[in-house]
Amino acid sequence: MDLWSPGVIRYCYGANRRAERPVRLVFSGVAQGSKTHAGLSKQSGYDAWEVQKLEGEYVEAFPKDKLVYLTADAQQVLRRFDPEKVYVIGGIVDRNRLKGRTLEKAQTQGIAAEQLPLSEHIEMGSYSRVLTVNHVLNMVLDYQASNDWRGVCERCVPGRKVYKVTGEGPKAQASVESLKRRAYSALVVPSKGRLLNSSGEVLDGAQTVREAKLTSGDVLTLHVNQVQLKAVRNGHSAAFAALLGDGSVVTWGDAYFGGDSSAVQDQLRDVQQIQASYSAFAAILHDGSVVAWGDARHGGDSSAVQDQLRDVQQIQATECAFAAILGDGSVVTWGDADYGADSSAVQEQLRDVQQIQASLGAFAAIRSDGSVVTWGHARGGGDSSAVQDQLRDVQQIQASRGAFAAILHDGSVVAWGDADFGGDSSAVQDQLRDVQQIQASDQAFAAILGDGSVVTWGDAYFGGDSSAVQDQLRDVQQIQASSHAFAAILRDGSVVTWGPADFGGESSAVQDQLRDVQQIQASDRHAFAAILGDGSVVTWANDYSGGDCSAVQDQLRDVQQIQSSGGAFAAILRDGSVVTWGDADYGGDSRAVQEQLRDVQQIQATECAFAAIRSDGSVVTWGNAAFGGDSSTVLEQLRDAHQIQAGNSDCAAILRDVMTTEGEVADVEDAPEKGEPVSPE
């Protein structure tokens, strides 16, 4: 840890606490009196950090055959994390490169070394493959939640490249926008992005080079965002919103559900991320303010709290309300009071909030001290008074549609909310020990214990009773849930399912095919699809909703990821093409756009439609037009869409700043030399 800065360590600790599936963190080399320990001691709350701290080296604390050093210099490529191993991250800190140091250290200590499979999923180019500690940890945490290396690489790898723009220079009276277009052409990047000056300020495209006070030799940074997709949906209607590389937003679909953002279009600039409720959107801007649109009753109107929405860090949503965490740890809410928009009764308690979880109508906030504050629909989890004294040292919270389940530091679980939705775990309370993670269907929970066994509770019709397969639930690695059923992947790659047969709880017809399963996707209601190690796919449950892929089985080769709507699936193959199956009314038939489905990077879905983002940043949509399946009215604007976010009845596409390219302003005609000020004419 001698090479680690306290800031990096603090970041890693916070990232792990906020993660959907945290890992067990161990900090080594933090002996009393060391420089690292002295720096950490100055960090707020360090003594209460819930991590293992070793004064000595990790080789003294763990068997060498269990240790694996993650280093870009290793020859061996890591495919999957082995839960029996201890992975070491270290040596590359704060963007510094110490060539070969980590591999040399691993070899000297006699421990294994592996590199992350970056080059197998993205083009790294000619620059260094080394990542900082925080980037590596983010990738580990992302993979824990997604089990998708390609997606991890797209979301987490910073694509910084340095180029020099050469050729005929722009005139001083030329616009910044024209300079930006030259940068696009020279750097071969999509045509949407933000151009920053050497001070990091975003340049106004309407200004001239002279007005922007640019001089020959100035280094400009072009931020080009990488595609990210996220969706929430319902069964009534839907809309999509695409966040472009320059931070602007394009929307389409049902206007009532957020498909029309014209009323706030001029405010949607420099957007960083978008969240959605049942029928509204809320966007966080670069300056920490928020813009909302869509159904006013469900959070589309934030005017009542607009002056409070400053320095917003993240937003969570119930079906009809939003909750924003500010930089100081306080919370601001708006939308339907019955669904959590009214937090006045607990406002004084909403301090030092780290994360918020939401059920259909209630919120649960975890504070920095591990306590929990709840509000919203009382029966749906908004009232935790019956278990408040038990909610201590909470690590993470999972939600069904009407209840919450919290994992405590000691591995026990506290549940509250509607008993019919899993809010009462008393029948299995003595079994809930050493819980590692919890998954939820609409009305039940399934917990994986440290020994790989599973404990379930809630409505039996929603998977709350696993007694019929309990003896098979051994060495469980992960669980996927549909609305009514669960599917567990075991260590050997086999699968165990339970819940109603019509919803995927019965997989006996394909059980002999379920071997070497890597990941499972569920449609909202009736079917599961599993990707095997060889890239083929096995499906089961309701045939019409995607449970039967026989019509496209021979096309399902080298499948990388699968997305689902309410009754259909869409698979991205290694070559970037897409295969769909299931109910045509839910997007299961993509023939009308099949020729356009090339070089697809990500897919997002509403209840009855899909949207695919290609490598060139363009968007292809199909499915029910009322659910966002027809984007023809905004097709020209949908160039370089980067993240799609779908609201409960809305969807929105958002772009994150992941790739940064830099270049010099070359030979600006009529512009002064470097260091000489520019005066407007």
UniProtKB/TrEMBL annotation:
**Catalytic reaction list:** guanosine(9) in tRNA + S-adenosyl-L-methionine = N(1)-methylguanosine(9) in tRNA + S-adenosyl-L-homocysteine + H(+)
Keyword S-adenosyl-L-methionine in annotation: yes
- The record's top EC class is transferase
* EC number per UniProt: 2.1.1.221
| GO BP field | tRNA N1-guanine methylation
Q: Does the keyword Transferase apply?
A: yes
Q: What are the annotated GO cellular component locations?
A: nucleus
- Give start and end of each SAM-dependent MTase TRM10-type domain: 1-164
State the Gene Ontology terms under molecular function: tRNA (guanosine(9)-N1)-methyltransferase activity; tRNA binding
Mind telling me what this protein is named?
A: tRNA (guanine(9)-N(1))-methyltransferase
